Amino acid sequence: MKPHLAITMGDVAGIGPEIIAKALDLEETYRVCNPIVVGDAVAMEMGIEVAGLNQKINKVESPQDGLYKRGIIDILSLDNIDASILVMGKPQAMAGKASVEFVVKAAQMAMRDEVDGIVTAPLNKEAMNMAGYKYPGHTELLAELAHTQDYAMMLLAGGLRVVHVTTHVALSQVPSLITKDGVFKKIRVAQEAARSLGFDRPRIGVAGLNPHSGEGGLFGREEIEVIAPAIDEARKAGMIVDGPIPPDIVFAKAIGGVYDVIVAMYHDQGHIPVKLQGFRFDDASGKWEEVSGVNMTVGLPFIRTSVDHGTAYGKAGRREGTANPQSLLDAIKIATQMAEVRLRKKTA
Question: At 213, which CATH number?
Fold first, then answer.
């Protein structure tokens, strides 16, 4: 049986509705899953128009009401957008509030087992804050909804899988946030995330924090005093872990097949290599030729994947419909893969 996936619309002033329309116009999407959009029907119609597609809207009350066929978008509409005052391409409180409400509804559906996972289109942190929601992003909002503390962000692109110990904090704060317990918990989360993707005995590489992983303490002692002890604890727990590995080589080794998942110490340490794998910009055309990659939250009681890019306000609402849906398609595929692994484990 194909998994049911709730696809949240994200910030409707961005490219979310457009890329959803494009992703759901492909037969391959319906071959692997039954997608239901959680969003606003009017915003979805606007996305279809911008994408230049011929699709119909089917408003439903629950996933069981969906038709799940190409050309018809099944949507659980919260009707929380006033199109007469919506301004495309700009952060605004109405869109920020609606984007949070979409996520809350989808998470509730997932926790009631009404859907097998959720896939999120991009939201905007400024718009969320304008609406009174002080979350750094999806990850923290979903963790609060699920009452989860041991969670992490994993990025995937081109065979590279990365879990972060810290994410949305100033670089100056990172060293103080790298603790033995924190690193150990992220190693454990990385193992469970890799298992959810089908790796029975994942090989985990842990990056150092400092250049050359501290060079024996010359460039910092976090590797000696914090990261290495956490790795030792993980090994005692039966995990296959290597490190701390100099950050400038650990990702190349992972791409070469040495590791199944990497634990990075901070946001850009992990994001830069992933986006080098998944993003490609062409200077001659001035366009992103490829925008692939997936952001998933691990440690939640339900499956959640997301695009690995933002709202792209500069493209939103433009009638040429230039937004690239590849990252959303990747997120749908990964969520489907995880749902299938989970089903196999339940029936084993």
Answer: 3.40.718.10
